[in-house]
Amino acid sequence: MQQEVAMLILQRGEGGSQRWPLNQELMNIGRGPDCDIVLPDRVVSREHAFIQRREDGYYLFDRNSKNGTFVNGEAVTASRVLHDGDEIQIALRFRLTFVEAGATAPLTMDLVSPASESGLQLDDTRRTVEIHGRALTPPLSVAQYRLLKTLVEAEGAVVSRDTVVRVVWPEDESVGVTEQAIDALVRRLRERLAEL
After folding, report:
1. Please, which residues bridge with residue 87 across strands?
2. Burial of 80 (0-12, 13-18, 19+ CB in 10 A)
3. pTM of this prediction?
4. Cβ distance 9 to 106 under 8 Å?
5. Which sign does the torsion angle of CA 84, 10, 59, 21 carry?
6. Residue-wise pLDDT tens digits, 120-130
7. Are residues 132 and 67 in the same domain?
8. Which CATH number does the domain housing residue 12 bear?
9. Which CATH number fits the domain that encloses residue 122?
10. Residues 13, 79 within the same domain
11. At 60, which helix (H) or strand (E)?
């Protein structure tokens, strides 16, 4: 069985994302073609930052870039240890989410195309889903519908696991919701949408 590694997820417009596994001891970030993670924009330095894997975790370093590197809105001036869910901003232009090894990746609209492109229509009163006029039968479960609605309303942004738990499971039911339960819900929703 392949060992899971940490990763960075870059959110793109139109609901897409790009993922980079942090599978080397040192991962260079910049606009230079030799970087491991290439962000092709002039506001990004050729060698902007790097992530180093150590025994006790992953560390982010800025390479004295012109436009800076930030974690959760704070400038990186020395090394910064990364935690699951941290948002890394490169030159305030690119937002990358750090996902620890073994953690569930945050949900993105990769699950379903943006509503405008997919012909997706949601009816909250009947809890029905239509894609290009074709109804999904039988209707989604309450949890599946809440998850889909949350992803559609996010318009391509990352939806954190905490948000999913808060929206999908009411407070009295959210105690003890595991990452496996979220993964299973996502899998079932994908399977249902694939029916259309």
Report:
1. 97
2. buried
3. 0.55
4. yes
5. positive
6. 788 877 778 88
7. no
8. 2.60.200.20
9. 1.10.10.10
10. yes
11. strand 57-62
